[in-house]
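$ ./design --mode recover --in tokens.txt
reading tokens...
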């Protein structure tokens, strides 16, 4: 069994898609959901699916390696960030080299970096007059949104689309692709180590 941890702190719609997709696989599973907000919707989604959750705080995340112990105790091989806004600390990137994926709601390298999340991204896309947008799935390194790109999908933006319209179109693509890309990357890691 190859085990995934999902890090999320929001509504968790991508986390839900991944959890549902993985329920149909016999050799990969979601072993843990890590969250930094105690009322986040993703905690309810994990509970509905019987997946253990871990609530983290900033001090333990940045100043201790408690999280590593937790990940190891759940035999976590791979991590998918899905709406997790904290920068991943270097010790965690080093412990999971090319084993942490993130999804960003724009076509990187445009519209990425610190502070570029959620509606800020879609407002920037609108302000730039871009005619396409879409999610980028990339490996995580020590810098926001800079790791190697694994997959991008794009959608046309009409002149009259609002940032909310753009967000809706991009999120639909995230739901369509993220779980499968996570699965593919986990299988590649399995081949390398197995
Ligand atoms: C998504 O748009 C994703 O690209 C970004 O955060 C959002 C998470 O949404 N990283 P949800 O919590 O999965 O609904």
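writing sequence...
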């Amino acid at each position: 069994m190859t085990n995934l941890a999902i890090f999320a702190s929001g509504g968790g719609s991508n986390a839900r898609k991944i959890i549902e997709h993985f329920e149909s696989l016999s050799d990969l599973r979601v072993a843990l959901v890590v969250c930094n907000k105690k009322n986040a919707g993703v905690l309810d989604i994990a509970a509905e699916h019987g997946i253990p959750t871990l609530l983290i705080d900033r001090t333990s995340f940045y100043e201790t390696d408690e999280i590593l112990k937790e990940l190891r105790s759940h035999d976590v091989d791979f991590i998918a960030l899905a709406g997790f806004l904290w920068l991943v600390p270097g010790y965690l990137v080093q412990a999971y080299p090319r084993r942490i994926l993130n999804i960003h709601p724009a076509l990187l390298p445009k519209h990425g970096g610190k502070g570029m999340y959620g509606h800020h991204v879609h407002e920037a896309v609108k302000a730039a007059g871009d005619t396409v947008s879409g999610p980028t799935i990339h490996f995580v390194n020590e810098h926001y949104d800079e790791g190697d790109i694994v997959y991008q999908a794009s959608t046309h933006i009409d002149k009259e689309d609002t940032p909310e319209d753009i967000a809706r179109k991009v999120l639909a693509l995230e739901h369509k692709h993220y779980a499968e890309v996570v699965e593919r990357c986990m299988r590649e890691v399995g081949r390398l180590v197995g």
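exit 0
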